[in-house]
């Protein structure tokens, strides 16, 4: 019975470790994403190079259709992912604490049973 709980404990700790690695990697990707946001607006179009109605429409598409969603992804979507990871880590840590309590209870019960068996054996002598 203890083997099952120890295996569960090991599994949950590995999951927490993997989520921590994932969170760290995701933070790096978010920084990379944020650093590259201006690439959505490259090349810059000056009045000398391109102007007129088509240039204005192109700029609008670039800003509203590409840059704004990119920034939303870099902010809101990454934040949601971080929140989901943090929630899962908290849940796993609660499960780990519960499993550790169960293991401690079983060990205490086994120790009490062994002490009672020793006492019974000594009383028979």
Task: Describe the protein in words.
The chain has 125 residues and is an all-alpha fold. The protein contains 2 helices and no strands. The chain has helices at residues 2-35, 53-124. It is rod-shaped, with a radius of gyration of 29 Å. The chain starts with a helix and ends with a helix. The mean pLDDT is 89.
Q: Which characteristics define this entry?
A:
single chain; 125 residues; mainly alpha; 2 helices; 85% helix; rod-shaped
Could you provide a short overview of the structure?
This protein is an all-alpha fold. Helix content is 85%, strand content 0%.
The count of strands amounts to 0
Q: Bin the strand percentage.
A: under 5%
Radius of gyration: 29 Å
Name the helix and strand elements from N-terminus to C-terminus, one letter apiece: HH
What does the largest sheet look like?
Answer: none
Mean pLDDT: 89
Helix percentage range: over 70%
Query: If helices are DSSP runs of H or I spanning 4 or more residues, what is the number of helices?
Result: 2
Q: Would you tell me the structural class of the helices and strands? A: mainly alpha
């Amino acid at each position: 019975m203890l083997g099952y709980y120890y295996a569960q404990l090991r599994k949950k700790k590995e999951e927490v470790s993997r989520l921590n690695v994932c969170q760290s990697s995701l933070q790096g990707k978010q920084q990379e994403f944020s650093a590259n946001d201006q690439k959505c607006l490259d090349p810059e179009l000056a009045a000398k190079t391109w102007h007129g109605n088509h240039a204005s429409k192109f700029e609008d598409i670039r800003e509203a259709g590409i840059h704004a969603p990119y920034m939303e992804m870099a902010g809101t979507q990454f934040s949601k992912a971080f929140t989901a990871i943090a929630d899962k880590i908290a849940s796993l840590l609660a499960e780990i604490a519960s499993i550790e309590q169960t293991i401690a209870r079983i060990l205490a019960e086994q120790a009490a049973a062994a002490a009672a068996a020793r006492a019974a054996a000594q009383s028979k002598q």
